[in-house]
Amino acid sequence: MKRELPAHIAAALGGNRADSAGQAWAGRDLSGPDNPLHAFDDDDGAADAGLTIALESLRVPTDQPGPGERAVFGALTTARVFIPIVAEVSAHARTDAGLQADKEADMSLVTLSAPDGRKALPVFSSTPALQRWHPEARPVAVYAARAALAAASESAELLVLDPGAALTFVLRRPAVWALAQQLAWTPSYEDAGLAELIGATAQTLPDVVSVGVRPAAGVVTRTADGSVAGGGGPGPELRLDLRLRAGLTPDAVRHTVSSLRAKLLALPDVVERVDSLDIKLLR
């Protein structure tokens, strides 16, 4: 079955197959101002300045990733990014010599598989970054919010910004959904209302003494040179520090943790606002 591109991506492709002289863009340098392979006038393919500043701020060591992650999200609400499109053979033909030849090719979005198996959509801050990653991919310029819509249409829960670059930033599912809907986003580990809901839910279990929330270890990531970046990791996103009543048997501990996880996953607000959850037992 032929996979259709999202309508807004197909529209962006439709009018940009060749330049005004009829020369195809394929095989040409797409990074300069003379080759605007997209519908953004006067766009030279460089990274958005605000997005670059927000990403660079993550390089400052911190134990509070919220401001940095919110800054990148805020920059993405107005930034132009590039989605890679590649040719995918959809039909073959036989030559007179009996050899198989490509007859038709469709343009399709590139998707990735995250370490946890979820689908991710790669996007790029600039055409040079995209071409370093996949020289044959065609860059289509869109606002990041439209890229988030494309991710949703592909059932991709993550946006991966600049894979293969010195700093790669993963926008996790709640942020992707917020960006697609052009809504504000608060990281789950900074969400006071969410913390209150989790605390109230935990207190319905008789063996729970206390529960606290904080950023999980998967919020931070590492740059290409191995240094820690304060945000943009693929998850886990939210850590619950859970303290249980003393003297419980191992089976009772497992039952309480399993019950808490099940109760939380039954709450729509938790499912929508938390990308991934890590529960740690405190002694």
UniProtKB/TrEMBL annotation:
<protein>
    <submittedName>
        <fullName>SseB family protein</fullName>
    </submittedName>
</protein>
<feature type="domain" description="SseB protein N-terminal">
    <location>
        <begin position="70"/>
        <end position="178"/>
    </location>
</feature>
<dbReference type="Pfam" id="PF07179">
    <property type="entry name" value="SseB"/>
</dbReference>
<dbReference type="InterPro" id="IPR009839">
    <property type="entry name" value="SseB_N"/>
</dbReference>
